[in-house]
Amino acid sequence: MGVQGKIKPREDMVPFHQQGFSDVRHTEDWAPDLQKSKAYEQILLDIILGILPPSARLDELGLAKQYNLGVAGVRDALARLSLEGMVLRRPRSGTIVASIDVQEVQQSYEVRCLLEPQAAFLAAQHATRAEIDEIMTAFDGAEAAAKRRDFRAIIAMDQKFHRAVAIASHNLSLARIVINLHNKAARYWYYSMTTRPDEDRLEDISNHRIAAKAIAKGDGPAAMKAMLVVMGDKNAD
């Protein structure tokens, strides 16, 4: 990966999420307080956790009632999840949760190992103070959640962290790819996480905190190295 020279963060730079950029789609407003954004986050998390299992049929009215949200917001959320490959929408047969393709998960992981360290490097160069705060606080309360085995909370924190780093890279194309790949990989990661000892989960949290601190210090090479460790490359430590 090419490493660029140090670029100081611009405090006057408007973060992508305030420009209307949210996660994957740049042309629509996915501000967190919108109904469709809330529906998207809830459905995505339930797919990752297996509450909505592969091949499960997704009924818009039922989901709207379950999450206490409007049908229009759920419909928009499902459309976005379809674009991201998390659900499949078929004429006359409705919407179902996409299956987990192990080969695709492995390939996604390989691509993430190439891209996420670079995203961390760029975040260390470009992140605004608000974006750094988002990264630094993503795992607040994580140790307590790990000890009580609150996997939903840990997954949500992990999603928040990787999304925040991707956005802080200020590279829209890179952020789109990273976030989409991470969402897909999270489904498999959740299943493996539930079988691992508590010590492993606490180590994962610590590794994320080290990466966050490197980004906050503006240390691009250290951020890249720390993100490789987060990705499971023990040789990078």
TrEMBL record:
<dbReference type="GO" id="GO:0003700">
    <property type="term" value="F:DNA-binding transcription factor activity"/>
</dbReference>
<keyword id="KW-0805">Transcription regulation</keyword>
<dbReference type="GO" id="GO:0003677">
    <property type="term" value="F:DNA binding"/>
</dbReference>
<dbReference type="InterPro" id="IPR000524">
    <property type="entry name" value="Tscrpt_reg_HTH_GntR"/>
</dbReference>
<dbReference type="InterPro" id="IPR008920">
    <property type="entry name" value="TF_FadR/GntR_C"/>
</dbReference>
<keyword id="KW-0238">DNA-binding</keyword>
<keyword id="KW-0804">Transcription</keyword>
<dbReference type="Pfam" id="PF07729">
    <property type="entry name" value="FCD"/>
</dbReference>
<feature type="domain" description="HTH gntR-type">
    <location>
        <begin position="33"/>
        <end position="100"/>
    </location>
</feature>
<dbReference type="InterPro" id="IPR011711">
    <property type="entry name" value="GntR_C"/>
</dbReference>
<dbReference type="InterPro" id="IPR036388">
    <property type="entry name" value="WH-like_DNA-bd_sf"/>
</dbReference>
<protein>
    <submittedName>
        <fullName>GntR family transcriptional regulator</fullName>
    </submittedName>
</protein>
<dbReference type="Pfam" id="PF00392">
    <property type="entry name" value="GntR"/>
</dbReference>
<dbReference type="InterPro" id="IPR036390">
    <property type="entry name" value="WH_DNA-bd_sf"/>
</dbReference>
